[in-house]
Amino acid sequence: MQKNLLETQHVSVQYGGVNALDDVSVVIGEGEIVALMGPNGAGKSTVIKSMFGLAPIASGEVLLHGEPYVPIPHNIVHKSVSYVPQGRRVFTHLSVEENLEIGGYIVKDKSLVKDRIAAAYDLFPDLKAKRDKYSGTLSGGQQQMLAIARGLMTDPKVLLLDEPSLGLAPKIVKEVFELVSKINEERHTAILIVEHNLQSLLPIAHRAYVLDHGKVIIEGDAQKVASGDILERIFMGTYKPTH
Amino acid sequence: MDFVVQLTINSIIAGSIYTLMALGFNLTYGATKFFNLAHGVMATIAGYTVFYFSSQPLYISIPAGIFAAGLVGYVLDRTIYSPLRKRKASNMVLLVASLGVFTALESLIALKFSSQHQSLPEIFASVPTFNLFGGSFTAIHLLIVASAAVCALGLHALLKYTLFGKAINAVSDDEEVSKIVGINTNRLMGQVFFVGSAIAGVAGILVGFDTVIIPIMGMPLLLKGIIAAIIGGLGSLWGGVLGAFLLGFVENFGIWHISGEWKDVIAFGLLILFLIFRPQGILKKS
Questions:
Q1: Based on the structure, what is the number of domains in chain A?
Q2: Within a domain: residue B284?
Q3: What residues in chain A have their Cβ under 8 A from chain B's Cβ atoms?
Q4: Are A51 and A73 in contact (CB under 8 A)?
């Protein structure tokens, strides 16, 4: 039976009295790619932030390996969970290699950090050529690769990816999703992806959740979710909830 | 000609003191993004700690002074600034809090040691004076310049070649992502305050050895450090150094034909010019 690695259980998040998430339960199981979809403002990024201790949970809880866990951002990374935030957000005043070193900040064995940097260069050859360049000088696609590579430096069991295709050219988006799939297959890393680009995401996802107005509207097998017209209706704003 | 040499020497000495103040100020500003006005009183604390331990050998009292400044900076962060940051206080609130800390600590020092100036023990049995191309300077001046160079290069090495330094740069860049990669940013900021305050302590002790110590010595040092940091580029280590020496030279050569009382007018005039025409400072891109 597949083990649940990280989940939110009936989580509600409020910002200034406004519900950003309402009773949301999302599960990431061992080795799977989970898609989190929905229109702007649906609360997709807030789900990830609540798992990482970056959003104020009003009710509900986060479970790690099935046990209740109060997430604190600088601690959860010790529990083999990594987060690549939206907008790339590399450390622009550090070089590519320094970004990777900082990605391995919590790794005590520094020879392991070196090995992982070498592995990151194998996975992202473009970064190797620019290892001494300031990351602020990289292209958008390279910065996204670096952000993902930085997230892999702790060799996480769960990787949370927030809008990895945002602002990237279609060719680069394709490369990013191929890499995500490769990371999942080769490293068995469970991946939760928040994404707008359904065309790229759904073919590689195992399961999917669709959010609207802070609630989970549908969940299940990614291909089944993709086959109906509900996604189109949600994105077009014509979906009417029955409850 | 001799006068020009002497002015140059004076400028370098002043630039070195301002460098020491700007280094620590820029370090804490880079990590926390607020104007820590209490930075000035760290110089006073270090000077008075050396004075307090006057009966002890200098190899004890000087490190004690530097450590005391660092420790007070660390404790202030843990007890005042860190709780304020956790409550998401604005930078203006933090600035006002630091001004309160500055005033309170300065008053406490005056209460304990009187508001009169005091002399630190002699650092050299007889202060040697050197002559260079017609200009003169003392061994303490040499120590000031050497200390500024050692602190600047040491801080550069810390930031560039250690994981601790890279983590400081990361926090300066993006605090939230720094947390995401596992950096305990609150603890790191406490450590940054320790280092920054200790460097300000070095400045206070050296000024004390060169002249005297007085409870109100922190404000002029702070202001010159801030001017140097702003004109060099806030948060930039080498920008601060450049700003400090530019300020030292402009201040000293500016009063060539006029009274020394114009020094502050020139210093703040330079600051205003930079704020209008190059607010990002010398080394920061616009």
A1: 1
A2: no
A3: 52, 54, 73-75, 77-78, 83, 85, 89, 91-94, 98, 101-103, 105-106, 150, 153-154
A4: no
Shortest Cα distance, chain B CAs vs residue A153, angstroms: 9
Q: State which amino acid sits at residue B189.
A: M
Q: Write the CA distances from B122 to B65, B113, B140, integer angstroms.
A: 15, 19, 10
pTM, entire model: 0.88
Burial grade of B7 (CB within 10 A; 0-12, 13-18, 19 or more): middle
Closest CB to B182: pick one of A74, A92, A98.
A74
Task: Report the gap between the CA of A19 and the closest CA in chain B (Å).
Answer: 21
Residue B30 and residue B172 in contact, taking contact as beta carbons nearer than 8 Å = yes
Q: What does the pLDDT look like over B26-79, one tens digit per residue? A: 999 999 999 999 999 999 999 999 999 999 999 999 999 999 999 999 999 999
Taking CA atoms, what residue in A is nearest to B161?
A98
User: Are A102 and B172 in contact (CB < 8 Å)?
Assistant: no
- Token pair for residue B34? 């607020």
Does residue A241 fall inside a structural domain?
Answer: no
* CATH of residue B241: 1.10.3470
Instruction: Identify the pLDDT of residue B201.
Output: 97
Looking at per-residue confidence, does A199 or B240 come out higher? B240
Q: What is the rounded average pLDDT of the residues A21-49?
A: 91
Token pair for B281: 């400072």
Cα A29 from Cα A62, distance rounded (Å): 14
| 3-class secondary structure, A177 | helix
From chain A, pick out residues whose CB is under 8 angstroms from the CB of B178: 102
Q: Which residue reads 């987060």 in tokens?
A: A83
Q: Is there a domain that residue B285 lies in?
A: no
CB atoms within 10 A of CB B133: 11
Instruction: Establish if B120 belongs to a structural domain.
Output: yes
Q: Retrieve residue A9's tokens.
A: 């259980």
Q: Dig out the tokens for B99 from the structure.
A: 């001004």
Using left for φ > 0, alpha for ψ between -120 and 50, and beta otherwise, residue B31 falls in alpha
